[in-house]
Amino acid sequence: MKILHTADWHLGKRLDRFSRLEEQVSVMEEIIMIADEENVDLILIAGDLFDNFNPAVEAVELFYKTLKRLSQNGKRPVIAISGNHDSPNLINAPDPLAKECGIILIGHPKAEIAPFGTEYFKIINSKEGFIEIEIKNLDFPVRILHTPYANEIRLKEYFGENKEEEINKVLSQTWKNLADEFCDEAGINLLTAHLYMNKKGSVILEEPEGEKPIKIGNADLIYSDSIPEQIQYTALGHLHGFQNIGTKEKPVIYSSSPLCYSFSEAGQTKYISIINAEPGKAVSYEKIALKNGRTLVRKTFTSVEETVQWLQENPNTFIELTLESETFLTADERKLIYQSHNGIVHLIPKVKNRESGEKVSQEINLNQDIETLFKDYFKSKNNGQEANEELMNLFNEILNT
User: Fold this and answer.
1) Which of 198, 370, 373, 389 lies 20 to 30 Å from 10, alpha-carbon distance?
2) Ramachandran class of 280: left when φ > 0, alpha when ψ lies in -120 to 50, beta otherwise
3) In the beta sheet, which residues pair with residue 122?
4) What does 26-68 look like in DSSP terms, one character per residue?
């Protein structure tokens, strides 16, 4: 069978003042096309479906339309769990209608999904944190251990007060009990979770810039050796870069977000994972690059002319722009730069340090007039750089208001 794994959609997310909804519509279309072209049998979405607990109407509409098309109106099971950006209750809310379309939405850890069936598949076993699915035209079942994100309150509720010591132990035991009860070699055995997971002893993986952090110290760090040996593939969400923290034989995959959502992700290629699985055998997987969406770029320039030329040559980008120069940008230079490109998220002027034999006096002569005092203050705070005429005109305008 074929499985598509994706995560961290963050529908409704903005980049500073810029909406990403148009790009999200395009990349959701791309994921749907890949699912259909690859003729996948099952889709796993590993959390952070939305960017916040109260997503905009447009984001919610895009979510439901995308899931319905991914499910091919009930022909293909789609399983989506909540992440740390999602409201579990919002994810659970449309459950009765979603099931009619072959969509299984799981908001809370240890949720138990009531057995149900469609013309094309049915849940034949269910327990807290587990479902077993029988899919038409497959002569073996699919077992899925599911663990949506749990906040601190839920972690204490489900995993005990001493969270730092208990979470790995309790999760490991919970998963092992389910795997021992249900996951033999006669079916496909999967785990999907929205957690901060890493291989024991490995370098700490960085959470995305601007992401709500899950890992605080080591309290919420789950180790991959907690995954039961019966599990053939683990579909994770939370980290935005594609990576396998498991082995080639038993992959533990962060599939990545579908778009670059912060400048810490600048230059990253985004992917979905397509898994080929058979009972009792090691899976294989292929990461397929997603092509839609603007590229995020961090660039540094030393002249306005060079900056404008690059901006005009690279229109389909969002850019964090640093401009190093001898003097501060004038209003006309800023206007020219912003007119050259519609995706400048940050413009960071950086005045170069000037070599000077002069030592800036650390004493302040309070008997000077206010304009000279301001010039001295500005110079002391900017590595000896003099305030330019435009800045002084603005200062005097404020002073005389």
Assistant:
1) 198
2) left
3) 117, 134
4) HHHHHHHHHHHHTT-SEEEEES--BSSSS--HHHHHHHHHHHH
pLDDT value of position 218: 46
* CA–CA gap between residue 148 and residue 107 (Å, rounded): 6
The string of pLDDT tens digits covering residues 251-271 is 999 999 999 999 989 989 999
Pairing assessment for the beta strands 142-147 and 188-194 based on DSSP bridges: parallel
Residues in a beta bridge with 126: 131
Enter the DSSP assignment of 11.
B
Tell me which long-range contacts 72-75 makes (C-beta under 8 A, separation of at least 24): 72/36, 72/102, 73/101, 73/102, 74/100, 74/101, 74/102, 74/118, 74/119, 74/120, 75/102, 75/120
DSSP string of 68-119, one letter each residue: HHHTTTTTS-EEEE--TTS-HHHHHTTHHHHHHTTEEEE-STT--PPP-B-S
Q: Is the pLDDT of residue 399 over 90?
A: no
Here the tokens at position 217 are: 């110290």
Residue that the structure tokens 């590229």 belong to: 295
What tokens appear for 191 in the block? 């785990």
Q: Would you state the pLDDT for residue 22?
A: 96
| Helix (DSSP H) and strand (DSSP E) numbers for the chain | 10, 20
Among candidates 339, 341, 251, which has minimal Cα distance to 295?
341
Give the full edge-to-edge strand order of the sheet including 270-276: 103-106, 78-81, 42-46, 2-6, 270-276, 284-290
Q: Is residue 391 classed as helix, strand or coil in its secondary structure? A: helix
| Residues 3 and 190: beta-carbon distance below 8 Å | yes
- pLDDT, greater one: 360 or 179: 179
Rounded Cα gap, residues 269 and 290, in angstroms? 7
Q: Does residue 181 register a pLDDT over 90? A: yes
**Confidence check: pLDDT of 4 > 50:** yes
- Residue 270's H or E segment, with its range, is strand 270-276
Among candidate residues 126, 217, 140, 137, the one with its CA nearest the CA of residue 178: 126
Angstrom distance (rounded) from CA 144 to CA 276 = 15
User: Please, what is the average pLDDT of the chain?
Assistant: 87
d(CA 214, CA 204): 13
Asked whether 132 and 147 are in contact (CB, 8 A), the reply is: no
Give tens-digit pLDDT for 111-145: 899 888 888 999 999 999 999 999 999 999 999 99
Nearest one of 397, 358, 398, 395 to 380, comparing CA atoms: 358
